[in-house]
Amino acid sequence: MSRQPVVRHNDWGSLTPATLGDWEPTLSVSVVVPTFNYQHTLPYVLAGLAAQSYPAHLLEVVVVDDQSSPAQQLPEVRPDNTRLVRVEEGWGRANACHLGALAAEGDVLHWYDADMLAFREEVEAHARWHHLVDYAVPGGHKLFVDPEPLLGLDPAEVRDRVAAGAAGDLFPGQEHEAHQWVEDYWAKTDDLRLAGPRAQRFHIGMTGSVSRALYDDSAGFDRTLRLGEDMHLGHSLAQAGGVFVVDREARSWHLGRSQVLRRAEQVNRYNDPYLADLVPTMRPKRNRRGRAYQVPYLEVVLPAGPADDTIRVVDSLLDGDVPDLRVTVVGPWSEVHEDRVQPVEDPVLETRLVHRSYLHEPRVRLVESVPAGSDAEFVLTLPDASLAPLPATLSALLDDLERTHHGARLLAYGTGAVARLERTSALARVARLAGDGDDRDALLDESFGVKTYPATDVGWVPVDQRVVERFTLGARPPVDPDKSEHRLRKALERALETAPVAVREPEAPGAPDAGRSNGQEDSRRGLFRRR
Question: At 300, is the secondary structure helix, strand, or coil?
Fold first, then answer.
């Protein structure tokens, strides 16, 4: 079997899709339509899907009723192979889409909302990318319209007009609203070709599709999310190696304004804590210091060695300027016992000291075998505990990777050992591309880029030279309270000189943003646009 084409970073322009109407599809497509009380628009959604140019024998539609009231029924005008699945457990779009994926039988999963009207070639435009590579994540183009003129038409008439290629004429004389925050980013990044790893943040599931293989290899939808599930799915698909495609020929009408457009501020406020916790690329939503998150930005994997060296390396990692990390130490922790033994002559003393040092540290986990993969954005695998990073080292190396969109930095030790700082999504892409006998490092360089540095040239020092500062509090007589207060105030004054404090400017009574400081307004960024 020949290897799939290599797409570098997110430059999907290197792929050449088939011309619409001039190719022979072979993959089956399942269109998953989640619905909750969309009885008024669903007949038109299915009418548009019944008029698709994609071969009917390769197309199925799975309508997932998320406990609508009254229960959703299938209208008369619909694709031949249409099924209704009812949600019995859980609720929300993410849950419904995942249940639809489980019920679907197609090679391709195409998410489609219950307030969308497809142009004739919509499904075909998506499907052609999946015939090229199994890691494409196409997104379609849409315009928002007032659905009232459509709701007065018979669904059979809508089906016939879409089939005749006249979907674009269904809303004559009406102003069409673009998905502006998406269009703006597309324009900045040449339709995501230049977006690199940030492309995942612009995954819009209302017109998205994915191969079943890529979906199954990803974490899929987080079924607990009630909003923001598309952005989380974009992260999951990127972590599995996905490349995000903009196909402007996959056209749709959105029947009405989306909730995001109607209530952007409230949606942003709700989404921020969920997506910040789950999606490391949402770094503008994460604190620079002082916080840990469910999914870390960086995971460091270290084999346990001599206790003093291992503890010093782990402490150096935790002491650095990337607090958003997880340190995984691999060692024989099950050997730590409670049998009677002379403590300093314990045969497993080295293991015991490391174990006790980090047993209750939430950013360190102790495992007995190297993890098969990671949910973090980056993974740093250290060969041993001979070198330790200076406080600014990890941040500088990660910024180097972020600027270049590269896949890896290899750090050469003087002993010949190599530490590997790798982008998780790049490793997943290579795993999809590589065949037996392929040089995976060469593929990683071809698809993302790799650079090697001598470790000691980029902030790594011998472990015994790395000092992690500790508190000093010697025995001393009490200080006079007034003198102590003076020292307190001087220390706070020095700290305030560099503290990032928002300054409140005087505002006219009744101003639109009265009560919100300018500092807060400038520093807070919404998920869907700058606030």
Answer: strand
One-letter amino acid for residue 46 of the chain: L
The encoded tokens of residue 441 equal 């490092």
Instruction: Note whether 292 and 324 are within 8 A (CB).
Output: yes
Residue listed under structure tokens 């406020």: 269
Radius of gyration of the chain (CA): 28
Q: What is the DSSP string of 372-413?
A: S--SSSEEEE-S-SSEEE-TTHHHHHHHHHHHHT-SEEEEE-
The three-class DSSP label of residue 210 is: strand
Residue type for position 378: F
Residues 21-41: tens digit of each pLDDT: 999 999 999 999 999 999 999
Question: Considering the entire predicted model, what is its pTM?
Answer: 0.90
> How close are the terminal C-alpha atoms of the chain, in Å?
50
Largest pairwise CA distance in the chain: 92
Alpha carbons 349 and 330: distance in angstroms, whole number = 16
Among residues 112, 89, 113, 110, the alpha carbon closest in space to that of 99 is found at: 89
Residue type, 450: V
CA–CA dist 29, 34 (Å, integer): 16
**pLDDT tens digit sequence for 186-230:** 999 999 999 999 999 889 888 899 999 999 999 999 999 999 999
Long-range contacts of 461-465 (CB under 8 A, 24+ apart): 461/387, 461/388, 461/390, 462/386, 462/387, 462/388, 463/309, 463/312, 463/313, 463/316, 463/385, 463/386, 463/387, 463/388, 464/309, 464/312, 465/388
- Residue 23 structure tokens: 């190719």
Residue type, 418: V
Selection from 31, 33, 39 nearest residue 72 by Cα: 39
466: its two tokens: 């790395």
